[in-house]
């Protein structure tokens, strides 16, 4: 059974200053990646991990800031080891 991704990426319950700061845009990016790559969506669904745990992993070791791209890369890696995020400027 397929998971409700909007509910999974619900940012209202997120805890942590850094996690809250990056939650909205990271959720949007991960949802887009799920739409682009069914295998990535499946990795999230089968991971047994929460979005809070993902954001905690992304925030670990962050000092005063983190770029969007770096946050997305860390989030993708959290769910799908070895996956890469590529940025294309248009």
Overview of the molecule:
There is one protein chain. This protein is 61% helix and 0% strand. It is built from five helices and no strands. The chain has helices at residues 5-8, 17-36, 38-47, 51-59, 68-79. The protein is globular and about 35 Å long. The model has no long low-confidence stretch (mean pLDDT 92).
Question: Which features does this protein show?
Answer:
90 residues, mainly alpha, 5 helices
| Count of individual helical segments | 5
Radius of gyration over C-alpha positions, nearest whole angstrom = 12 Å
* Largest sheet, strands/sense/barrel: none
From N to C, what is the helix and strand string? HHHHH
Q: Averaging pLDDT over every residue, what do you get?
A: 92
Low-confidence stretches: none
What percent strand? under 5%
- Please estimate the helix content: 55-70%
Query: What separation lies between the terminal Cα atoms?
Result: 36 Å
* Strand runs, count: 0
Gross geometry: globular
In oligomeric terms, what are we looking at?
single chain
Task: Give me the secondary-structure category.
Answer: mainly alpha
């Amino acid at each position: 059974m397929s998971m409700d991704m909007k509910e999974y990426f619900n940012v209202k319950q997120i805890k942590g200053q850094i996690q809250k700061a990056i939650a909205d845009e990271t959720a949007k990016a991960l949802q887009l990646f799920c739409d682009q790559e069914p295998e990535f969506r499946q990795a999230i669904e089968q991971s047994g991990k929460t979005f809070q745990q993902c954001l905690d992993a992304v925030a670990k070791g962050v000092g005063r800031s983190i770029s969007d791209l770096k946050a997305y890369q860390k989030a993708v890696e959290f769910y799908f080891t070895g996956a890469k995020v590529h940025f294309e400027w248009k």
